[in-house]
Amino acid sequence: MRCWFTSALLLTACQGSGLSSLSSVAQDLDTGNWLSSTSSSSTEDDDGDNGPRDRDGDGLSNAEENALGSDPGNPDTDGDGYQDGEEVESYTDPTDASDHPYQGGWPIAACRGDVAVSGDQPGQNTGNFQLMDQYGDTLRLHDFCDKIVLLVGSATWCDPCNREAPTLGNWYNNLADEGLMVITLLGQNMSEGTPSQADLQAWASAHGLTHPVVADPGFGTAGRFITGSQIFLPSTTLLGPDAEVLIADTPINPSALQTALESLP
Ligand SMILES: [Ca+2]
Ligand SMILES: [Ca+2]
Ligand SMILES: [Ca+2]
Ligand SMILES: [Ca+2]
Question: Ligand 3 centre from 100 Cα, in Å?
Fold first, then answer.
């Protein structure tokens, strides 16, 4: 449509043309052609539902937010305290408040949703778990699918577990950079009940631990890997990448850890 600026009537007709041109800009955005076709028009997206601008300043463009389903006008769409852009960088879901980066700071791997579960025997890939950590967050095993993971079933009343805990903390502190994750599965507190968040915090604090300490009701997760009918504590299982069971329910020594770490890509 052509337009002239010679009368109020024709000026109105020209604005109509401008609107249809904006609508074609939105269509271009859907096909990713924004910069090539309308680089001079980026300021036209101030109302902002569909453009390259980051209206809410959360690190994601309006167009990226529309593709993700997050809100281009709200930096923290799901209200979990983590901005949408930070969540995408951490591989968590900006539209799910129960899924967010860990307060403990443990990095989440991109493969978290890709583990093909096959079983709990050595050579098989064990299923995910969701257990409360010492910060009250929900810890998911498969978030560490790129790591060697040492799972240690323990209980607050268990003397050998208490004696072993500082060694586990040292292994994690010394070997995390090489790809080790240690997760303490605390099955019972002093009264043989499921540990509370305070119990988990107390265990981590008493032993100076910076790795995840989670509540494992009824030893349900530690018990997946036992070879007999009873669980003997501490119960230690080593997992490889993609949660593959490497060594089940057997004490682990530093050389076994080192061997596993050297197998990482
Ligand atoms: Ca944004
Ligand atoms: Ca947003
Ligand atoms: Ca969020
Ligand atoms: Ca979230």
Answer: 7
